[in-house]
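hiii so my PI (J.) wants the whole complex modelled not just the main chain, which honestly fair. so below is everything: two entries, each one labled with what it is. i double checked the lines twice but i was tired so who knows lol
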Amino acid sequence: MSEPATNDTAQKETEPKEQKNGEQNGEEEKDKSQPAVKEMKAIVLTGFGGLKSVKVLKRPEPQLQEGEVLIRVKACGLNFPDLMLRQGVIDNPPKTKAPFVLGFECAGEVEAVGEGVTDIRVGDRVAALSESKAWAELVAVPAKFVYKIPAKMSFEDAAAITMNYVVAYALLFEIGNLKSDQTVLVHSVGGGVGQAVVQLAKTVGGVKLIGTASKGKHESIKDVAHLLDHSTDYVQEIKKEFPDGIDLVLDCLCGDDVNKGYTLLKPMGRYVLYGASKLTTGETKSLFSLAKFWWQVDKVSPMKLFDENKTLSGFNLRQLLYAQGRDQYVRDLVDRIYKLYSEGQIKPVVDSTWAFEDIPDAMQKMHDRKNVGKIILDPAKEPIPRPPEEVVEKKRKGSAKSSKENKEKDNKENNEENKDNKESKEEAKAGGDSGEKAPENGTDK
Amino acid sequence: MSEPATNDTAQKETEPKEQKNGEQNGEEEKDKSQPAVKEMKAIVLTGFGGLKSVKVLKRPEPQLQEGEVLIRVKACGLNFPDLMLRQGVIDNPPKTKAPFVLGFECAGEVEAVGEGVTDIRVGDRVAALSESKAWAELVAVPAKFVYKIPAKMSFEDAAAITMNYVVAYALLFEIGNLKSDQTVLVHSVGGGVGQAVVQLAKTVGGVKLIGTASKGKHESIKDVAHLLDHSTDYVQEIKKEFPDGIDLVLDCLCGDDVNKGYTLLKPMGRYVLYGASKLTTGETKSLFSLAKFWWQVDKVSPMKLFDENKTLSGFNLRQLLYAQGRDQYVRDLVDRIYKLYSEGQIKPVVDSTWAFEDIPDAMQKMHDRKNVGKIILDPAKEPIPRPPEEVVEKKRKGSAKSSKENKEKDNKENNEENKDNKESKEEAKAGGDSGEKAPENGTDK
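here's the output for the full assembly
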């Protein structure tokens, strides 16, 4: 599955200051003399930056509000926006709200329902697309973002399928209007959405898939007719193979891949931008690179689209759900996806399942594009055993400092980590684990 | 149906110089001593500009080439691109090729087939989307642009349905991916494409149509829930009625309506530009207005589409067929449309049928947006009787001049007409027919 984590930042610990600020229960700071608030384990973002910004902490259990559903979490989904949020590339929840509990996706059992919730009952097995807060033992989510899962769907599958397949379904069928025998280019085809696209495309006859992925994982990727290495001149390779162009480009990278994707379209072709994962690579950490990243994306005149018979689209599930109020639209997609699952037409590919405490390794794996399929977090799973000296070392350092000092240290480490990012590689400095990862690393950039 | 034409430029005449230059038969100038070339009646564009550029002339019958189908034309479709071509707004066929026979659409009986044509036989009833040349008694069209029509489809219906419904079908279902209960804004809903959109939208349950059309013809337009006058602040009216936005905007106007249309979209909404009919109004004749027209159309970043969950598309059937080689794609759409017709699900709305000689009136009607549904030209129809003095006057003038002089006169008239266009109204100067049209005119701008 994966190599043992050597990063020592995610040990269980409590951090009283943050606990008091907790936005989980939506309440003001409580008097310590009141009955002790029940606590739970959660993955908390304490600042913005590298892996060290993410900690497993004790947090107060959420208090159920009107219209909400309280879920006992059994499995969580790791998604690319989690990495972008951690790095501060996306700003929702806003940076000012840190520390907060991370996580947009989970599945579990309903423990309680708030006033006004009618469709969901205690004991129901559900998935949720929560606006953060999902990576905890308990989460309270507005009912409009909670979906009952089919009887035969495991919690792991539910956490693997819900977000990625909603995105993939929207890309292929809602925006892409995919028809049989069409050609589709999918970037990062090994990722969670990429693998969902592969499965959903198979439900349509004769679709030819072209996928980009790092060379190292080509062998692990199934059902993609044309696998290309993104670091090569993939545009020329595709033009050679498909001189008439392709029907649909699904781009989660952004940057200069936007213009490249547009160029590859045949007349009546569609380009869809649904992510900007290039923003999380080290090379865009400098202001110059960041500006270049934005400059590279050409604005397009509708009159050019008219001349060329082309379509440009954007898809952003988080905006759709949390800013644009289209939760019913998303619910319809979830229904269709669960139906396909129940019919046996799709089965999510799970790359690996991790304990909360191993979140740095899980994130690093996604950042390095080493996963094939979904990365799952399981709050009940035992963490990978660490070399004892590291734990001791960590405890020794940690106990000698106040929480304030700890925070300063974290910030310093994060800054150092940002420097590392300039080398196009995000590593947990403290761990020095590059040696262990070397066999996989060679071909991954 | 319509008022008698008073424009005197479209009388049958022969113009020997143009006849010799004819690109219809694809041959070099012939020696007059050879057997006389058979002639036919055709609507010829002699230059670019106003209605006087269009003449009914005798032309040599086309000679069939390999891969072509010779059609005895029974009905022709008038489409907006014909007006744009006449005014020189679109350049295909290129201006240098004038004079040439106009017309992108016709239906008739197959009189002969060229070498290599296998699917179509002599006697077949067909429609054709020809790259010009369709408005003649005979036309030779590459077989790839010729479609056999259902047994029960009249030639008039075939000429009314083929181009408009292909466009409408592509807009609604191929690009728009229309679903039940969605809202659609259609500009110029009274036009040929607009009326096709209305009929095709009815095949989907619960679609709410919003249409713009000049107030004067609102009464004649059926099945459109929300009819608005384009000259009012339609954006505000729509926002009031549909505060969440609309799902699909179909825009044949261009200019500032592009940005307005984009603004009206709800998240997951789509805007499609499929024409630029505003370019043919008098107001864009000045260079300043023309520049303003282009400036008004905002370029859009794919990243904005990503944030807003929106789609921008262009559709241009002529480009698709004649420049981009997607004739098989269009053929599939034609098949689907003819099937819907055979099933009785659609029935084209024909506004009026005109003799070739009455083409100026037919074009004027479309230009003034006075038609509801398709305008058809019938080569066998008798022209509307003209006041005898005008015919006499015309003949007297014409016979006194050489063909070269005639051409100079035409150019001069065209220039004068362009001046008229600056007054936002295109009229046949010689006819002085504004009095007769006054009752309809009042609300049309």
